[in-house]
Structures
1.
Amino acid sequence: MLAFAILSFFVTVFIVQVGAGLAGYSPSGDFVVLSGALLATGAIVAGATPMTALSDRTNRFHRAIHR
């Protein structure tokens, strides 16, 4: 899991750097790393929320009712 977190961080930093270049900006490295870290952390936390488990239970409940 740690390897995937590190990989997603590197991919996010690359995307932020390329996106800034396409927009005509040239931010310093510390801003690119900060924004990449915030985006990667948000994606990891959003993927690990308990709400994802609730949606699976809700879907099973609705399928059971509509049979």
Note: The chain has a mean pLDDT of 80.
2.
Amino acid sequence: MKSGIHPEYRPVVFRDRAAGFAFLTRSTATSDRTIEWEDGETYPVIDVEISSASHAFYTGTARVLDTAGRVERFERRYGKRGER
């Protein structure tokens, strides 16, 4: 890599406050706030709106819409395409 043009890549804690979930990873993201992690070290912390702990897809609370049933109901009510 060319030196002097890339941001610093360092450990950062991402925290989902809604779910009470945090994880330590490496990132170029910056923050003025810090947190003391489980290993006793202090790291920058970035609060996020959603993570795998609170996203509906990962928690199993996602809903699947019945689009086929809606199309059939529409066709029953208004007729199929091209019919008069």
Note: The two ends are 67 Å apart (CA to CA).
3.
Amino acid sequence: MAEDRLVCRECHRVVEPNVETCPSCGSSSLTEDWAGYVYIAHPEESQIAEEMEVTEPGAYALKVR
């Protein structure tokens, strides 16, 4: 479930709960305090990905605290 996952505070990538660092940016600043969930399949064609500055496909949180 998405609710059990952590989110990177730097790139907003959703990661599994047992991960110590973000596989996308390498940051160790992960949090459980996030809201909203979007999966970006084709970032090169997505206006949302452009707005969020996402370049890799994957799951991202919309709001990270």
Note: Residues 43 and 50 are 7 Å apart (CA to CA).
4.
Amino acid sequence: MNIFSLVIRAVPDHLENVRAAVLLVQGVELHLEHEGRLIITVEDVPGVRSSDLLKQIQDIPHVASATLAYEYCDEELSQSPLLTSEKSEERLS
């Protein structure tokens, strides 16, 4: 599972258009809108990298900035060589 959150700053006169465009991006959920900022999360979009979704949002007209606030990926943890090495298994037992 992949999930990340963004703080998006929009040009104030275009906030409604930015909000509408952001909500068209797959996996986006709007959590808060305050003083020209949108706080969103983006959750698992099969076959699409998180970096591509971030770029898609940054390229929306009148987005002043889209800052990554949080990212979580549990797949990376389960595939980590450190977690499956013999030494780490010995330390865990």
Note: Helices lie at 15-23, 50-58, 74-78, 81-84, 86-92.
